[in-house]
Design goal:
The chain is mainly alpha-helical. It is 48% helix and 11% strand.
Length: 182
């Protein structure tokens, strides 16, 4: 797999395709149209690669950064940036992925633009709805993944315990044992 899906919502997992945003050189996980195609399939949004091209990739990156700008504004309690609102709304207004009942379950088909429309619609629901208050950014300094904190008491710190949570706890354990060994 080329991509990770720790957040439980595709729109927020999509933001994670630019890893370590705070680093001098973040890691771009959507560097090619083929990687965008694989994201759609690995996320199970589409059953088959949509055949994305360079313009689809540019649209995907614009949408991702617009959603991130809106999430940042919600996290900071700031006004939503008008340009980001317009970009997300433009994508959300498009025809989304087609989901149909099939003999063996469901079938999901569509173009890259339809996949982006579905992501934009989910982002609109999260950012504009009650769940917007549950948005959190992972506390691990190297991670900038955003998630919804549905935990009891709303005190979750990491995007995923099995990755970031384990890394932070293991580093703290090593640090404690280093200081006691000295």
């Amino acid at each position: 797999m080329n991509h990770a899906f720790p957040c439980g919502t595709l729109a927020l997992d999509f933001l994670g395709t630019l890893r370590a945003r705070r680093n001098a050189v973040p890691t771009e996980k959507l560097a090619t149209p083929g990687l965008l195609d694989s994201w759609f399939v690995e996320s199970r949004m589409l059953d088959r690669e949509p055949g994305a091209d360079a313009s689809d990739l540019a649209a995907a990156l614009e949408l991702r950064e617009s959603i991130y700008a809106l999430v940042e504004a919600r996290l900071d309690g700031a006004a939503l940036p008008a340009g980001a609102v317009a970009a997300v709304n433009r994508h959300a207004a498009q025809t989304p992925v087609v989901t149909q009942l099939a003999p063996d379950g469901t079938s999901r088909s569509g173009s890259a633009a339809q996949g982006l429309a579905a992501l934009a619609r989910e982002a609109v629901e999260i950012i504009g709805g009650d769940e917007g208050a549950l948005l959190r950014e992972c506390a691990r300094p190297e991670c900038t993944q955003v998630y919804l904190d549905h935990s009891r008491g709303r005190r979750r710190e990491w995007c995923a315990m099995r990755t970031c949570g384990n890394r932070v706890k293991a580093a703290a354990f090593r640090a404690r044992h280093r200081t006691t060994a000295e």
